Every structure is written in structure tokens, then in C-alpha cells.
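Same chain as my last thread, 115 residues:
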Amino acid sequence: MDEQSQCPKCGSENVYHDGTLWVCPDCAHEWTGDEAAAAEAEGVIKDANGNVLADGDTVTVIKDLKVKGSSLVVKGGTKVKNIRLMPDSANGHNIACKIDGIGAMDLKSEFVKKA
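reply #2:
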């Protein structure tokens, strides 16, 4: 899959090339191919709103997430404190954290927003 075929803001694959820009019709984000490649090369991890995340930040889960291998659910609106970033994660889960009542787990940055 081409690196430009996903929106760097929302992750949607419904993107198209318009002149020198890539456009996402789902979130109306416009970017150049260089912008997405530069952010990925730097290891910058952004939340669902495009804010840059750092180790120790507090984030809020934006939607209900099922916990794999369990009947537990992380409810939308759950605050997660003191996150650790894992930019080189192979499975796409680039945030390590502990959630009260659930324990240690990994999250994808596209499902959280900076608190």
C-alpha cells in the first residue's frame, strides 16, 4: 500500500490526489506527501485531533474499545494518565499505559485525544 493512501490525521483510506495535495474527504485534511513522510520519519505520534503526544501525557479515550481476549471494555471518555510512547511498535499500538480496573495495555494513538 502506498504511504500516501492513508490520511495522517484520521487514518482513512478514502483519500485522493488533487494537484500537489492529498485530500481526505472524511475529515477535510489536506497534506503534501512530504509532510506525512517527515512526521513518520521523525517518529512523531499524534492523537486523533493531530496534537503531538509525549511521554507522561494524559489522554482521553474517544470511543469504546474492546479488550482483546477479555469481555472488558474501555469506555469512551476514560482518562489515561502517564502514557509511554512506542514509535517502533510492530502491531500499530503505539501507546503503552495502565488503565484503572483493567491493567497494563497498549492503545493506538488514533483512538485517544490529549487531555
